[in-house]
Specification:
Family: Belongs to the YciB family.
Protein name: Inner membrane-spanning protein YciB
Number of helices: 9
Structural class: mainly alpha
Shape: globular
Number of strands: 2
Number of domains: 2
Radius of gyration: 19 Å
Membrane topology: Multi-pass membrane protein
Largest sheet: 2 strands, antiparallel
Distance between the termini: 36 Å
Function: Plays a role in cell envelope biogenesis, maintenance of cell envelope integrity and membrane homeostasis.
Helix content: over 70%
Keywords: Cell inner membrane, Cell membrane, Membrane, Transmembrane, Transmembrane helix
């Protein structure tokens, strides 16, 4: 299936919609307990049970509309299904809280392997979005690798030391804001290495 462009707002809705739906549903159901098939489930587990198929649905729609999924999206979906499924099956919210840790560790490890080999796997994924010289891609990859490790460690600290509600707020807004702020502070790399492509075209 050939890749196709879709409305950016629709794309953002499909990518962020499940996360925001999880957040809203959790706030509504967090203090409730549900009896299903003779077993008690807290609101967090019930919301997780709804989040997993919703994530599968929106990712499937995104793939259908665009004709492609990034490796990051595929890995994220697999981990959502695995860790979300374990949380629901075992009635243990800790597995779902581990998911961001595993996602960031996997991404950091992948980038780290590339760096050891003298390559930027980040460039392979994002080259069309951000034209940089090879040195710029390597510098950005090193920073992002360390950043992912830091996010994984932070998630572990938050879910192990704070309440479930605090973790939900952190996961929904804190992690997203952290990624946004990280790229804002990479301006020096874009200024230093982003202009070299222009030089090659002249």
């Amino acid at each position: 299936m050939a890749a196709r462009e879709i409305n950016p707002m629709l794309k953002s809705a499909l990518e962020l919609g499940p996360v925001l739906a999880f957040f809203v549903a959790y706030l509504l159901l967090k203090d409730r307990v549900f009896m299903i098939a003779g077993r008690e489930y807290g609101g967090f587990i019930l919301v997780t049970a709804g989040f997993v198929p919703l994530m599968m649905l929106t990712t499937g729609i995104l793939w259908r509309l665009t004709g492609k999924l990034s490796k990051m999206q595929v890995v994220t979906l697999v981990l959502v299904v695995v860790f979300g499924g374990l949380s629901v099956w075992l009635n243990d919210e800790r597995f779902f809280k581990l998911k961001p840790t595993m996602i960031y560790l996997i991404f950091a490890a992948i980038l780290g392997v590339g760096l050891v080999r003298g390559e930027s796997y980040l460039q392979v994924v994002m080259e069309e979005m951000m034209p940089l010289a090879p040195e710029g891609w390597m510098a950005l990859t090193r920073r992002l690798c360390l950043f992912f490790f830091a996010l994984a460690a932070t998630n572990e600290i938050v879910w192990r030391t704070m309440s479930t509600e605090s973790w939900v707020w952190f996961k929904t807004f804190g992690l997203t804001a952290a990624v946004f702020v990280f790229f804002i502070f990479q301006g020096d790399i874009f200024r230093k290495y982003g202009e070299q492509d222009d030089d090659k075209d002249t």
